[in-house]
Amino acid sequence: MGNKKMTALLLCGGKSTRMGVDKQKLSYNGVYLIDTIIENLAKNFDQIIILSNEKNFFENRYKNYKNDILIKEDIIKNIGPCAGLYSGLIYAKNEDNFLIACDMPYFNQAYIDFLKEKSYEKILAYKNEKYFEPFFALYKKELAKDLEKYIKKGGRSLNGFLREISPTVIKKEEIKDIKNVEKIFRNLNYPKDWKKFIEESKNGFS
C-alpha cells in the first residue's frame, strides 16, 4: 500500500468560535499554518481536497505544487465535519483518503508512513481508551454512501459514524515506537492552544 496514490481531505469548515479568529488564517511571523499543513500533505498525497467556504483565500494559492489540489465547499451545509468528510469522499479521485483538519498542526511523517503500509477494509483509525480518533485516519471512497445514510438519519458525530462502521483499529502498541505520536490528534481550539503550539515550535513553523 505504500506506493498507492491517496487523497488528503483537509477540513476547514469550522466556525472557530472558541478561537475567536478564523483558524484557516492563523499565522505567525508572516507564515500561515495552513500553508505548512499543505506543504506536508503535498509530500505524501497526490491529491489534496480543501473543504472550505473561503474559496477566494485559497484560489491560486498552491498553483506551484504539482499535486492535484481542489478547493470545494461542503455539499451538505451546516452539519459539521461529517459534511466535510462526505464531500471529500465524493470529490476524491482515489480509493484511499486521509482525513485531517486545518487546526491539527502536529504532522508526523512516521505515522503517515505507518498508515500507508496498513491494510484495512473501510476505515483505519486509532482508538484510545475511550473512543476512536476520526482524524489522521484513512477512509475508503465507497464509504460516501454509508455516510450519506448516517447523515440523513440525523447523525452528526464522526465518532458515532466510526462506531457504526467498526473500523480496522490501530492499537497503542503498534505505534509505541513513533516519537511524539500522541500529539498528532491535538487540535487548536482556544488561543491558549495556539500560543502553546507557537512556543513548542520555538522559531515558529515552516
Features:
206 residues, alpha/beta, Spore Coat Polysaccharide Biosynthesis Protein SpsA, Chain A, seven-stranded mixed beta sheet, two-stranded antiparallel ribbon, 7 helices, 9 strands, 18% strand, globular
Any idea what the CATH superfamily is called?
A: Spore Coat Polysaccharide Biosynthesis Protein SpsA, Chain A
According to DSSP, the number of beta strands is: 9
Q: What is the number of independent domains?
A: 1
The CATH topology name reads Spore Coat Polysaccharide Biosynthesis Protein SpsA, Chain A
Give the overall form. globular
Short description:
This protein has seven helices and nine strands. With 206 residues, the chain is α/β, with parallel strands linked by helices.
Description:
The chain is α/β, with parallel strands linked by helices. It has a single domain (6-201), classed as Alpha-Beta Complex (Spore Coat Polysaccharide Biosynthesis Protein SpsA, Chain A), CATH 3.90.550.10. Helices cover 30% and strands 18% of the residues. It has 7 helices and 9 strands. It has helices spanning 33-42, 55-58, 81-91, 109-117, 143-152, 158-165, 191-200, and strands at 6-11, 27-28, 31-32, 47-51, 68-72, 96-101, 123-126, 137-140, 168-170. The strands form 2 sheets. It has a 7-stranded mixed sheet with strand order 5-4-1-6-8-7-9, with helices on both faces. Strands 2-3 form a two-stranded antiparallel ribbon. A hairpin with a 2-residue loop joins strand 2 (27-28) and strand 3 (31-32). Helix 3 (81-91) packs antiparallel against helix 5 (143-152). The longest helix has 11 residues, at 81-91. It is globular. The chain starts with 5 loop residues before the first strand and ends in a 6-residue tail after the last helix. The mean pLDDT is 93.
